[in-house]
Each structure stands twice: as structure tokens, then as C-alpha cells.
Write a structure and sequence with these properties.
Elements (H helix, E strand, L loop, with lengths): L8 H7 L30 H15 L6 E5 L3 H10 L5 E5 L7 H8 L7 H13 L7 H5 L7 E5 L8 H10 L4 E5 L16 H14 L1
Helix pairs in contact: 2-3, 4-5
């Protein structure tokens, strides 16, 4: 599993502890430069970090089925990894984000920036250009992945645009499910699914079906 931007192992563990003692192994990825990890945090290395993590899981548990679970910024590299490995049993994606398009999508949603929209667009183009192409979910979709996928998102998520996640879901050609979250008192409406027992129950049911 992989967690959100700048979060440490302790947070990842606490948020996903509902996965423990459910009959399957649970392993947590922490990126280079995150938490106490050595190296420098760099968006250009997250895809290779996930690929290395996946290959290690395969070698550590040979012959066992592997499912991926990711939240927020981790959804992109995990989705890319899954698109390259059809043997993966399933993937759970909460608050899906496409780093290649998120800056422009967010700028378009912030209507109060329209008076300075030309400047905003220029800055978003620069941000998007800094994101490697292999982290673009539109590129991953061209591989036509068919891994069973569970998408979870809040319609008013202020961090990862709902509209973009829904577009990826609609274009996804594999077996898929969608869960729309209700407010849990979090003003950002972001990464709140795993505090709801009803949602964690659905995630566990999905994992049991595919592991």
C-alpha cells in the first residue's frame, strides 16, 4: 500500500490498520526522501520506487496473489505499475490524482482566480511540464489495463479533483467499482474513506474477492 504526500509510515499504518488480521499480508511502501528514508523526495522517482516495491513483494511472497491499495499521490504510480503488470489481482484507489493534469484541473476549479487566469495557466503549464510522462494516467490507460479496480472519491475533494478521477474511471476498461464518499467533518474532504467502517468493509470485501 502507499499513502499520500509527505505522510510517514506511522500515519499510513494508522489509516490502514483495518487491513490487519484479515488473513493476508500487509506491506507499506515509503518513498525515497519520505519519513526517515534516505535519498531525496522527487516526483521523477516515485514510479520506479513502486516498481521496486512490487518486485520485492513478488520475491518475498513467491506465487502469492498481490493487490495494491493507494491513497492520494500514491494512486498515480500505483495505477501506472498496475497498468504494466496484468498479473496483479486488484487495485484500490482512494482520492485518485493525475499529477500531469492536476495543476490545470485545480486552477479551472478555483473560479476566484479567473482575474489572473493567464498567469495561473502559465504557472500550471510549467508545473505540468515538470511531471514525467510515465506518471500521466492517460498514458497508462493506453495500455488498456483490465485489473479489477475499486475507485473511492469524495465529490467535494479539495485536494484531488473529483472530475478528473471520474474521467479516469469512465475510461478504465477493466472490471471496476465506484464509491462516492459522504462528508466526515473533514473540510478538505480528502482521505476520509478509511475512517468509515462501511467503506473499510467494502474495501475488505473487494480484496477478499480478488486475493
Amino acid at each position: 500500500m502507499g499513502d499520500g504526500n509527505a505522510t510517514g509510515m506511522a500515519h499510513t499504518y494508522e489509516y490502514n490498520r483495518f487491513l490487519l488480521d484479515q488473513g493476508f499480508n500487509v506491506l507499506i511502501l515509503s518513498y525515497q526522501g519520505f519519513d526517515t528514508n534516505q535519498g531525496n523526495a522527487d516526483i521523477k522517482s516515485v514510479v520506479s520506487d513502486v516498481e521496486t516495491f512490487y518486485q520485492w513483494c513478488k520475491s518475498r511472497f513467491p506465487g502469492q496473489r498481490i493487490a495494491l491499495l493507494a491513497e492520494s499521490i500514491s494512486t498515480a504510480p500505483f495505477f501506472v505499475c498496475a497498468s504494466r503488470h496484468p498479473e496483479i489481482s486488484g487495485i484500490v484507489l482512494e482520492a485518485l490524482v493525475n499529477p500531469k493534469t492536476v495543476a490545470l484541473a485545480t486552477a479551472n476549479d478555483w473560479w476566484w482566480l479567473y482575474p489572473i487566469y493567464p498567469i495561473t495557466v502559465f504557472n500550471t503549464v510549467l508545473i505540468s511540464a515538470s511531471v514525467p510522462d510515465d506518471l500521466d494516467l492517460r498514458v497508462a490507460l493506453k495500455r488498456q489495463p483490465h485489473i479489477p479496480a475499486l475507485f473511492i472519491h469524495h465529490p467535494k475533494d479539495r485536494i484531488t479533483p473529483y472530475r478528473t478521477a471520474r474521467q479516469i474511471y469512465e475510461r478504465y476498461q477493466g472490471p471496476k467499482e465506484w464509491i462516492s464518499l459522504a462528508s466526515q467533518g473533514n473540510p478538505a474532504c480528502h482521505m476520509i474513506g478509511c475512517v468509515d467502517p462501511a467503506i473499510t468493509g467494502q474495501i475488505l470485501a473487494f480484496l477478499r474477492d480478488h486475493l
